[in-house]
Amino acid sequence: MRRFAAFACLAVLAAGATACGSSGTPPAKSAPGQKDKVAASVIAIVDVAPIYLGKQKGFFDQQNIDLTLSTSQGGAAIVPAVVSGQVQIGFSNMTSLLLAASKGLPVKVVCNGVASTGVADKDYSAVLVKAGSPVHTAADLAGKTVAVNTLKNIGDTTVRASVRKAGGDPKAVRFVELAFPDMLAALQAGRVDAIWEVEPFVTAALLDSQAITGPAVIFGVFGSASSSFCSRTHCAASRVDSCACAELSNSPTEVRTPPPASIK
What we know:
alpha/beta, D-Maltodextrin-Binding Protein, domain 2
């Protein structure tokens, strides 16, 4: 049900985005028989799988929406694309969105993406090490090199928080930037000591005989780890908000952590 809600939220947001031009004013209506064109930028991870499934199944076509999807290595790169009007909808992590809001960028969260379970070994992300690694606890990561998909973002932030909580020195952890699909090869080759991965790459790595679950399974600092968002400036005419998206799911077990007030 939670995955259905992810698709439904984007469908509603896409419908609202068709009423918004890059200048913040409603564009001319599509010619009869033509679909409204909407561009969205996402990260190639399991969180956005329902969006691709919805496009494949023709759900957006049924709403007269011609949805174009593009991918980025991390959420930080998606923020400027949305703010500039290059795309109407973005999928990013809360760290990137909080940083954007702190700099005065007009980002508006409209739907929760993926939320932390709060359970260390059953979360959306994990730190992985090779079998036989001397790293056994989060504190052991001090002095080691950890791969994350984007530097100075949610990955290194949560790793440092876990190291600190375990009694280690978070300043002693070194980070390198690698795309999620490239991390396992770097770990196997010994170029890094640990990797911070998300699904589906966590499962793929665990199926590899040379990788085992790391000493620390990292969970998001915020209850909501990622969200779909738009630009207040370019989508001023949209009536979509986070409440409208939340109402699309009737699952009593779904986590619906509201976004921080600064980016609502």
